[in-house]
Write a structure and sequence with these properties.
binds 2-phosphoglycolic acid, 43% helix, globular
Length: 249
Amino acid sequence: MRSKIVAGNWKMNKNLDETRTLLAEISAKLPDTSAEVMVAPPFVNLNGAVNALDSSVIEVVAQNMHFAENGAYTGEISANMLLHIKVHTVLIGHSERRAYFGETDELLARKVAAALAHGMRVIFCFGEELEERKTGRHFEVVKRQLKNALFPLEAVVWKSIVLAYEPVWAIGTGETASPEQAQEMHAFIRQTITERYDHTIADAVSILYGGSVKPNNAKEIFSKPDVDGGLIGGASLVADDFTAIVGAI
Ligand code: PGA
């Protein structure tokens, strides 16, 4: 059985005090669940979050990392630095990284490979833009993103990969993909992985949906057979909303 996961992507929000406050609220309101629950604060607050959550079931994950071991990469963070502060999971390929920081499929392939080589777990984010969906190219785009960044990988590392399908037009816009659109794409993703690898890998990988998931739509989206949870942006910054979404799974 693949894991159910609800992960909160805090993006560039919350200072250290606010981070501690929000984590305390989330911890207090967290419903009993068999799902994995994760939060991704900004780099500067990761250590504080790990310490604040000490023996909690909530896992702290990073929003990004560099592919190099160390060196002259001003402003960047390496896998070793994350592991040293007990952060074992990293988001790679978020659409905001692609759009605002010029991250290409080729760069993302290097980041994914580096994270996996360090034994980290990767939540790989991808999804089409509005224009691509309008012109019927969404399947083609998603396939290309998978192919370029993940399909060079050996089958054995797929146990450390989680996918997050996030149509760009649904991120932060209040417009969600319908549960049917999410299911259709998630099924397509599994089929594409089956073609490159096999059924076992395609069936075992958790595929999260992201893009305006809120307490009032989470249950319906999560009820689809190929949707294994969510990557939550805006609603993860409000303890009541985030814990309600966890409850919905
Ligand atoms: P949103 O963001 O829930 O605010 O749409 C999702 C994401 O960017 O991961």
